[in-house]
Design a protein that fits this description.
Largest sheet: 8 strands, antiparallel, barrel
Strand order of the largest sheet: 3-6-5-11-8-10-9-7
Shape: globular
Distance between the termini: 12 Å
Helix content: 25-40%
Oligomer: single chain
Length: 219
């Protein structure tokens, strides 16, 4: 049975316990106007299509550089998303990536007051297999959790996702605002995290993008 859904202006609950698989896709856009047009087209297609119960949420983000659109879909299992999206007429103009399938692996919850994120930062790593996936996450989590409150300032939570093919790690981090993340980039916690990734064999940092939520849907 299709589920009824609501249009939201809030970020998805990344830690919701019924989400067992996440799909992320990217569209490469030329500026804010095209980015918003692509986002509206994507969301209008999703909003007008009856969705199966297994799709829990679907969120769209525009990068702060206005060059990349990110979609983030939470599902109950690994069968429902691909069968549903095969029938959708998604934007054909901008270059895009095939959906990457992830599992949420670990969370670091820094600010538990319920503050609404003002920015989302996606930091990616290319890795050599599942053992390296877990090793780099464990090392970075330890670094973040042992940091001082000043070093963690502005970080609400960090959510580490592992691609099912063993080739990627993605830290989808919630921040209070852009300024907090920019200040973090010049600090010791950021420096130590990058050193850990650069020095670990089989791990290659791919950089990050900062995003703002545009629209979202949830069951």
């Amino acid at each position: 049975m299709p589920s009824s859904t609501a249009r939201l202006s809030t970020n998805p609950d990344i830690t919701r316990p019924d989400s067992h698989v996440v799909y992320m896709s990217y569209w490469f856009v030329d500026g804010a106007d095209q980015g918003r047009a692509v986002l509206d087209e994507i969301m209008d297609v999703w909003d007008s299509s009856p969705r199966p119960d297994g799709i829990l949420s679907f969120s769209c983000y525009l990068s702060t550089g206005n060059d990349l659109v990110l979609t983030y879909a939470q599902c109950t299992d690994d069968a429902v998303y691909r069968s549903f999206t095969r029938g959708l007429s998604l934007p054909a103009g901008p270059a895009s990536t095939a959906p990457i399938e992830y599992r949420l692996h670990r969370d670091v919850l820094v600010d538990t007051t319920g503050r609404t994120p003002g920015a989302m930062v996606a930091a990616s790593f290319d890795v050599d297999g599942s053992e390296r996936q877990r090793s780099i996450v464990d090392a970075i989590v330890s670094n973040v959790e042992s940091a001082s409150a000043d070093e963690q300032a502005g970080l609400i939570a960090a959510h580490f996702h592992l691609s099912v093919d063993g080739s990627r790690v993605l830290n989808f981090a919630e921040w209070t605002d852009d300024e907090a993340h920019i200040e973090f980039l010049g600090g010791d916690l950021s420096r130590r995290s990058l050193e850990i990734a650069n020095e670990m064999p089989g791990v290659r940092p791919l950089g990050f993008k900062r995003y703002h939520l545009y629209r979202s849907l949830a069951a």
